[in-house]
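Protocol step 4 of 6: structure prediction from sequence.
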Amino acid sequence: MLVNSARGRRGFTLVELLVVIAIIGVLVALLLPAVQAAREAARRSSCGNNLKQIGLSLHNYHDTQGTFPATTGFTRGWGLIPMMLPYIEQAPLHATMDFTRQVLCNNKAVLEARIPVLRCPSDPLPSILPARGFPATCPGNTLPPDSAAAVTHYLGSFGDGCIVGETLGFTNAGNASFTNFSCGGCSSGACTSAATTSLCNKPSQGFGGGQFHRGIFNYLSSASGANGTGGIRIAEVTDGTSSTIMFGHTSGIAMGFDNVWCTSTGSVNGTSLPINFNIRASIQNGGFFCPGCSMGQPWRGRGFQSHHPGGSMFTMADASVHFIAQTIDMRLYNGLGSRAGAEVVNLP
């Protein structure tokens, strides 16, 4: 006799189905942060590899040229990274550049070049951003001075220098900036390489540049006059290469319109502002913003920052790469920024 076995089967009730779905939802909610953390760890590792390549390329440059690279200041506007291209496997791009002319005189392909080692995978913005600013114009150039250009997420360090127009006291409050934050290149507002107070007797020029610049790189390094200091030699890093920041991180949204990968003014940030100083404010604002800043004064946000939670990545002058927390004491941080300040500091 045939028996209908279907009568013995029992399906899921609605309550059971809802319980299973709820359990799956809880498991997903528990696993999602771990997945996101794993992805960010992979992105941070990739970012660290980029900075390691940059550090090694700078040492190869130094071995060949006898100094770290210099910019062409405002004269022609070329930055540090174009000089490094043959050492980061970009010799063909380097060969297309005419360094005898202003940076804006070169073609659009140069300005919009996408160089993988210059991009942090955690940065959410595109590599090419509109309305960029350039330090030198080009007579008769068909490209407008606010052309789109590729940005860089990695910049050289000008150290603990003055930042013109900075209004919160980190660099521009005279002796208080030195006493409270150990800003060795401090000023009382001028940032013109002229002594302003007893403790701020060698302030830097503009944003961390000039004859008294304290880091590894000077955005005015090949400028005419006293501000043109040329490239720095390793022998001049008397504070020790393992305790001096050489390159650091920036953000596409939290750095102003002068972030252009190939320009002198897009070459440097400093330690004289706290890590991640204005990145959250810029994200909330939907564009560059920082306390006391305006779109027309992007140099006032010249601190290192990144989209890695809690801090930023750095290459030291010995080419080692480290993550430094944004909670670091400013006195220690500025000590890591100066190359010859005689501070006794160690990485936290």
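Step 5 (inspection) to follow. DSSP finds seven helices and seven strands in the chain.
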